[in-house]
Design brief:
The complex is a heterodimer of chains A (213) and B (304).
Chain A: E1 2-6, H1 11-23, E2 27-31, H2 43-46, E3 56-59, E4 62-65, H3 67-78, H4 90-119, H5 125-148, H6 162-172, H7 185-195
Parallel strand pairs in A: 1-2
Antiparallel strand pairs in A: 1-3, 3-4
Helix pairs in contact in A: 1-3, 1-6, 4-5, 4-6, 5-7, 6-7
Chain B: H1 11-14, E1 18-22, E2 32-36, E3 39-45, E4 51-55, E5 77-78, E6 80-83, E7 86-89, E8 110-119, H2 123-131, H3 136-139, E9 156-160, E10 163-173, E11 184-194, E12 197-203, E13 211-222, E14 225-234, H4 241-260, E15 267-268, H5 281-293, E16 299-300
Parallel strand pairs in B: 15-16
Antiparallel strand pairs in B: 1-7, 2-3, 3-4, 4-5, 6-7, 8-14, 9-10, 10-11, 11-12, 12-13, 13-14
Classes of the chains: A alpha+beta (213), B alpha+beta (304).
Chain lengths: 213, 304
């Protein structure tokens, strides 16, 4: 069974739990005392990931780290439909890769602001918040045009991709970092659609959506 | 040199001991900085394990290496009290002793800081939320409560020895701790011995002759931003520290968005400001107690 080196309040670990829950992949979480213990920075943990960060998966001896890389692996291996990571469609695959890189930006701004506020990380909070607003503005407009085109997801297909999973936690927990989503209605509607994906799983700080129409 | 008025003009709060860090998280030999009552303060541990706290000074910036046993280079030293695993200080003239917690020293008790978490709310809002039983089945469904068991049965509240006590608080709890998965009706008692500190006691499952303690001791960074220090003191030979801390922080993370969406962020003390129900008796007593103490920081005082 897949082992997930996990911290329940980490957005990047949540991305993996969410993906595996949606794909119906069983896994065993291995709790890491990320906070306040900083266990991931310790010598023991660096034997697993020398970069000293989580999440890391161990899939029957195959070790992989980096949240967005793990999403690629999980979808490529465990989604027989090939829709979450659409390798069969070069256009869609390119879009997925592009929005995965965009999600690095939301992680480094919105989720970094959350670490500042919650756990006292020494980042430039105002710069993180301003950066998140710039990206949210772009994503909100993008999703608005998608909706006008009859589409629900970040990429142009009719099915969500790993890009939606990579972006969702950074967006939905942004208020913990002092980043309001009041001005991004299309972004808010998209978070509700993600919450209604079959197999969706919550993490603390995220509330369920109503069942919808 | 610019002289500014302190933002906190509340002598009750100004002269309290306030928690600023878990002792085992204070880096030795280097300056750490935090905010207390809108004032920048710095602290460190000496190689001998003693603690120093002072008003922040540009001569001793955060991150600077420091031999804490040397004089503080002219910076204003603040009172220091290492107690119950945490570092406490005061900007004013604090009493000799912090509130008593004799249970802390029980030989089987495992004392730890489950984590210090920033929350955008006032300290009294955080304390009051901790006192509230009614939200368990909704906000902590599956862990501290379960629907449809949402009734809060009548419990006792009194002010005794200058503290607020709520006792005989019964709740159906599906998962009381990290490694306890059998649903039980838990009997809790609450204690508020300090305007910004609250403890929850309940019989320890492995040894019901002893009480487990779970607390939040709230550091008022400003009137509307706090750090909640999650103290745990439990009798539990089965769980790892990681399990216990992880479970406590999971619960706290569920509370956090609720807390941050309460408006106004300062706790209104006027009895007419918010409409309580019977289940809120402990909150009513807490608000009245704050009023009687004359607390004005982090609250909206009742009109006189």
């Amino acid at each position: 069974m897949i082992k997930l080196y996990d911290y329940v309040l980490s957005v990047n670990c949540y991305k993996q739990r969410l993906m595996m829950s949606i794909l119906g992949v069983e896994y065993e979480p291995v709790p890491v005392d990320f906070f306040p213990g900083w266990e991931h920075k310790g010598e023991e943990f660096r034997k697993i990931n020398p970069l000293g960060h989580i999440p890391v998966i161990d899939d029957d001896g195959y070790i992989l780290w980096d949240a967005h890389a793990i999403l690629v692996y999980l979808a490529a291996k465990y989604d027989p439909s090939g829709r979450w990571y659409p390798t069969g469609d070069p256009g869609l695959l390119g879009e997925t890769a592009s929005w995965m890189l965009f999600a690095e930006g939301t992680t480094n701004t919105a989720s970094a602001a959350r670490l500042c506020v919650n756990l006292g990380y020494d980042f430039d909070l105002e710069a993180c918040q301003a950066g998140a607003h710039r990206l949210f503005r772009v994503l909100d407009e993008h999703l608005w045009f998608r909706e006008r085109g009859g589409r629900s997801w970040v990429c142009s297909g009719d099915h969500p991709t790993i890009a939606d999973i990579a972006l969702f936690p950074d967006v939905v927990l942004s208020e913990e970092g002092g980043i309001s989503r009041l001005d991004y209605p299309a972004l808010r509607r998209w978070t509700d659609r993600v919450k209604r994906i079959p197999g969706f799983e919550l993490m603390p700080g995220i509330f369920p959506a109503s069942p919808g129409r | 040199m610019e002289i500014t008025q302190p933002a906190c003009t509340d002598p009750v709060i100004w002269n309290q001991w306030h928690v600023i860090s878990a002792l085992d998280e204070v880096p030795a030999g280097v300056v750490s900085e935090t905010l207390l009552l809108d004032e920048r303060i710095s602290f460190t541990a000496t190689p001998a394990g003693e603690h120093r706290v002072w008003r922040s000074s540009i001569r001793l910036p955060a991150g600077a290496e420091i031999d804490g046993s040397a004089p503080l280079n002219g910076a204003d030293a603040l009172p220091v009290k290492p107690e119950y695993g945490y570092l406490w200080t005061s900007l004013g003239d604090p009493p000799d002793d912090l509130f008593p917690l004799p249970e802390y020293h029980h030989p089987r008790r495992r004392n730890m800081n489950a984590g210090s978490v920033g929350v955008a709310t006032s300290a009294p809002r955080a304390v009051e939320n901790f006192l509230d039983l009614a939200h368990f089945p909704y906000v902590h469904e599956g862990s501290l409560g379960v629907q449809p068991h949402t009734e809060v049965v009548e419990y006792d509240v009194e002010v005794r020895d200058g503290e607020v006590h709520a006792t005989k608080c019964d709740m159906m709890v599906p998962k009381v701790g990290a490694n306890f998965d059998e649903p039980v009706v838990m009997r809790y008692r609450y204690r508020v011995p300090h305007p910004y500190c609250v403890m929850l006691y309940y019989d320890s499952l492995p040894d019901p002759s002893v009480e487990d303690i779970c607390a939040i001791w709230v550091q008022p960074m400003s009137a509307e931003v706090v750090r909640a220090h999650n103290y745990m003191g439990v009798i539990d030979d089965a769980s790892t520290n990681t399990d216990i801390k992880g479970y406590q922080l999971l619960i706290f993370a569920q509370d956090k968005p609720i807390l941050e969406n309460q408006h106004p962020k300062r706790l209104p003390l006027d009895p007419r400001a918010e409409t309580p129900i019977r289940a809120d008796r402990s909150a009513i007593a807490y608000r009245r107690w704050l009023s009687d103490l004359g607390v004005t920081y982090g609250v909206i005082p009742a009109a006189v």
